[in-house]
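Dear colleague,

Following up on yesterday's call, I've attached the two folding results inline so they're easy to grep. Please treat them as preliminary; we haven't cross-checked anything against experimental data yet. The first protein's sequence and structure tokens come first.
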Amino acid sequence: QVQLVESGGGLVQAGGSLRLSCAASGRTFRSYAMGWFRQAPGKEREFVAAISWSDSSTYYAGSVRGRFTISRVNAKNTVDLQMNSLKPEDTAVYYCAADNFFCGSSCLRASDFGSWGQGTQVTVSS
């Protein structure tokens, strides 16, 4: 398993940008697919974005496609989520997750990811 620590959350006005970062520990980081999920109060945890370990293929939820960008730097054991054009409905706790049995677009559920960070709060004001 890998240990994950998120950073970069905060308060931003609608239309603004934030960049979340996830630092992973473990020598096998490059063999894990990485994902970002979010959970708003009273709602289930939902998929936001993921990036594969093999060819860095990326996957996005429809609600964030075109606004959010996931990227990874294996040499630094980090994965980032650049969030632009933020909306109040993007308000949630954002979690970084890792999966070493990734199977692409069929493996984007929270239950597919075995390692999780503690989460970072993102609040978008209107």
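Below is the second protein, in the same order (sequence, then structure):
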Amino acid sequence: QMQLVESGGGLVQAGGSLKLSCAASGGTFGSDALGWFRQAPGRKREFVAVIGGSCSVGTTAYADSVKGRFTVSRENAKKIAYLQMSRLKAEDSGVYYCAVSQGYAGAVKLGRQYACWGQGTQVTVSS
């Protein structure tokens, strides 16, 4: 069974950058889409970014709120994915989760389309 572990979160000033990592162990990594989601206190979990699996190589999608500032990537041979976040804003604060989809290779954005989740990493952007 696949396990995902996020890292790279922390405290950063508005306008700064952070790079999150999502390391996978077990299971097969690469064929399914990998997504990033976030949840701020008192708010619902929201989609942030997704990168497609092996049948959708190069496919990415982003939430409008992060488009142009965040970049998602993956290295399947190393079983790791990244979320590069730039020009961070206070509203980007929250717990960030990576997740692997359940049989979808394309840019799926709904949480229910994901079967395996990490434990999350906290991102705090001070204004």
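For the second protein, one point worth flagging: The mean pLDDT is 95.

Best wishes,
A.L.
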